[in-house]
Amino acid sequence: MQEKYTQKKQYFMNEEVTIVQTFMEGIPDVQNRWIPIKHFFLCLNRLDKDNDVVTTDKNKLIDFIDVDLDMAIARETFTVNTDNTGVGRHTQQMDCIRLDVLAIAVTQFKPTAKKGTGALLIWRTYMQWLNGLLNQVNACELLVRDKKIESQEKYIESMEKRTIKGNTIQHIISATSTPNNPVNRVLIENFCFTNKWYEKKNNDVIILKPQYVKRIRKNGIAFTDTGKEILLDQFKDTNKRNF
Question: 6 forms bridges with which residues in the sheet?
């Protein structure tokens, strides 16, 4: 449970929702914002006649996040103020999902037309935009290959490496850290120091092995493609299931 958080109003699918704001340091802002699951389905016109989340929808969402995305860490329960006066007299425990899984989770749930076609039209436009974006990065090449890859494990590894677009420590953390395999900056830096890739002196970075690491500013580094591949292999979750 997050110790410190606030809440604010924002708009999802052009409908007002509550967004919970947490304050963890060293992570992207999108990982510090959460939307209640009930508000997620409300904006998709998928609540039942009693204005509650349909159990099958909730279970599907949880399974998609926990199993398919392997990101159970992106679910949390918060005490949300449900009083529009803002004085906090009425609160409710609400299950929430983090916004860094929202953009993909919404693709799994087509809005109904219970309250009109507004949400459906927004969703269809978003799906068309997303399809165009995937084509821009040739996403189909992750699925359609010229040659058969020798094993499912090798196939999955090749997909994972191609989806990592950045070369910074944060990109390595995002690509390798899971609830069962927490990876942080200290672990990565200690590996680099031990293997003498670089060192820090007087708040400055001294590159020792330029084949693995490069300077991007006075006290900042990024990894070469070779260095990134070594780190992805070093810190990968060996318990992550293969299909």
Answer: 21
